[in-house]
Design brief:
The structure is a homodimer of 147-residue chains. Chain A is mostly helical. Chain A is built from seven helices and two strands, in the order αααββαααα. The complex binds FE2/S2 (inorganic) cluster (2 copies). The site of one FE2/S2 (inorganic) cluster has 11 residues of chain A, from α6. Chain A binds a DNA duplex (30 and 30 nucleotides) through α3.
Amino acid sequence: MFSKATEYALRATIYIAQKSSDKNKPGMAEIAKAIDSPQSFTAKILQLLTKNNKIVSSVRGPNGGFFLTDKAKKLPVRSILEAMGEDEVLEKCVLGLKQCSEAKPCPMHTNYKLIKGQLIDLFETKSIQSLADEFENGGAKLNNRIK
Amino acid sequence: MFSKATEYALRATIYIAQKSSDKNKPGMAEIAKAIDSPQSFTAKILQLLTKNNKIVSSVRGPNGGFFLTDKAKKLPVRSILEAMGEDEVLEKCVLGLKQCSEAKPCPMHTNYKLIKGQLIDLFETKSIQSLADEFENGGAKLNNRIK
DNA sequence: ATAATTAAGGATAAATTTGTCCTTAATTAT
DNA sequence: ATAATTAAGGACAAATTTATCCTTAATTAT
Ligand code: FES
Ligand code: FES
């Protein structure tokens, strides 16, 4: 559904939201390990999410790392997709027509639009914070390594 | 959601299902034009769908082209995804965990699984034939060029 | 001030996806 | 039989995505 980059972005952001505090900000090594992603690549992705302080914030130097402001935690998950330039996935025609519309619907449209609506609603309603709460609190995981 | 290749595969198959008959089998040029796809690339994709006569059938030579057997028309849309090796998209974890499971759910799982179920149901229930019926009959389109 | 730590950023490489072109093989019409 | 038509298939090219590595800049601890 999403690119690897966006999957890493989602997992990393949720991890940071849950783990960061004033005292403790996870660094790249910790994050990549926790979400089971390639470290250098994930670093690039966090750079994107940090640019203009869109979603993720960071501090350099010893005890530095990544964190989310309270404001950022309240953002809908969709804002991560937007920062990754991949939120059009939610709006796309499932058969790849240039527009998904009632005016010129594809043969799947009538059935798919119901699902699409729920998908959009999910990503717009769920906040980053609420996903962070699911993580560990609700027993949700951000990797599924055996150990 | 799907790769371009799979989008072309879906559109092309639906088009062929609707347009082909004993007397008339659309060729590559016609298909690519109708579904607004790059011809040579689409040809490769139809080769995949034709291999082992999985979904699409073909005849070479004058008045040759592509068609679907009645049996093929009754296949679920998901079988096209399978032929393209891309049906795992339906089963995947939305955050990219290696497994989507109740045992080790990601933070989106509880909400997403409801949508996922509908998505799987849609692709397993809808037949290629029923989509072909939507096309032109039901006013559905396989491209949205202005003209 | 200095050294240590950590993210930012640039350059580059590998892998995959998307796409084109040309030749070959099969089939049909004449 | 021959020529025309059309899909099959191989080789290759372009574009995009994924990934690594190394240097630079900022910050902190000493
Ligand atoms: S037009 Fe294809 S899903 Fe809406
Ligand atoms: S585990 Fe992520 S969607 Fe099921």
